[in-house]
Fold each of these.
Amino acid sequence: MKNPFINSTVLEQISNELSLRQLDSGLSYWWVETTDYQAAIAVTGGQLIWFTQVDHSEPVIWLSENSHMDDSKSLRGGVPICWPWFGRHRTDKTLPSHGLVRNIAWKLVKFDFNGKQFNLSVSPDLTALTTEYRALIQDGIELTQTLTFDEQIEIKLTTKNTGTQSYEFSAALHTYFNVGDIQNTELHGLVNSHYIAEATNWESVDAPKLYRFREQTDRVHIDRCEHAEIESPIHTYELTHSGNNSLIVWNPWQEVSEQTPGMGAEVWKGMLCVEPAAFKPYLNLKSGESHSLQQIIKIIK
């Protein structure tokens, strides 16, 4: 994958390692650069869209070459934040898929760098939502994403309820991994898991002992799946999850990819989504409580 973030305009140099930049196409993003790694986080959607290490030239996070590259909406790839619901809304199918924060601007909350590890926290600007959508989020509900970079990536999405009433929600970290060739990629660690899918009439099915990809895959593993490993021609990834009650595994394959905005006939071959989610069932966050959905990505090779 070519790095689309090399040539850009620096809008603000926030620190030696952090800047706010913009591509000529209009995409605004926070750029993190140290001697060990580079990362980009889109302002619209607050999603991680690029991460490379000095020791590994190929990016970890997959981004479609056919995706728009402006601030109009969430990019096709990266790690889109699905909140306060994942997929279709469970009662109102006219509402946006995957929630309300993917297509609005996020704000930089804080950052720090200790010489190796970089921490960055961002929150969605909920005032940018329409009155109709804002009403779907109770007063006192706060959302923060914290990204930690060093020899691995840690993504933590924290929902906090400072209000007086309980709040039901779901969430997912819709992570697109760069795998190079999906048909030569294997997913390990889910042997004892089971999943539901439209292809199986939503009946529970045991995970395959040898988890390979030969067709469209859209599965919801309905257990915590705390650990998994992706072995691909590009990288081997060790994944650790917490705060989730399900794990989504997705590759659209050719037919669906051709019909999906920002994808196309060929790019699906290079990606695999493995997404921790608090989704089956929804969470009930009581007053004064907080919940963190987390994915740690360790790049083995």
Note: The chain has one domain: 9-299.
Amino acid sequence: MEPIRPFRWNIARGDRLGSLLDGHEHEPEYLPHLAECAAKVLARSSDGDLYFVGRSADSVFDLLSGVLAETPYASRLHQLPLSLYGSDGEDLTATERAQLRTNLTSSGLSPNDLAGRRRPVVFADLVLHGSTFTNLHHHLRDWIDDERAAWNVIRTKIRYVGITVREKTSPNTWRWQQHEDWVTELPGKAVCNVSVDLWLWRYLGNHQPKTAHSFRRTRWADPEVTVPRHDEEARRGLAQAVALYQHGRTREVREEIHEVLTGEPTFREPWLRGIARALRGR
């Protein structure tokens, strides 16, 4: 069984885009809000490797890719094309399960890979009720058990960062992770959130054009997804990705990211101060 991965242009590598962006220039008015979100995701990544699950947080990945370009931290950013939302991630067939594991292995996320990691793997995604993280965790847990891998070791290497809708803080505020039993399997603070305004969450999750279709179970083994899209939505999504990457490389955005990092509680930790110094030192 061969791994399948949806095609996405590698902007950081400088893929030739030809005329794909013609007539699709993009100036993101939401940039300051996205920069704040991206900085907080970075600050809450536990000195780990960030894996952005699915498509919803593509813009966070693209902006941070520009911010961290030409620093020692650029290799910590990864995309994990995968849709496990709701019932779509449940009751997999044996063939679907095998393909999922093959695809995860190609991303360096097999049980053996997880057990041998030096830094944690940090899954980041937009979260409503947490079903994507729940399904992903259950599939990983079953796989680890099937392989008889060292769960006591692996549990220290897994983190989750949810990008949620900002709400008023009170003891009665509903928080998705408080309603998921699997969270208790992980060390304290292994699950955390970054909140954004509702309009930004809806735009990223529901309305923003994307360069690829959702990678649902019906497409996990479909080689057609490896072919680049050239339709209107894909071109608009690509234009946004390029614009955000380029903005991330500017001193203005790096300074915005730096300012947010210094206000985070984790800034006292050497690893985050190292990232902040790298941003200033480019």
Note: The longest strand covers residues 158-165.
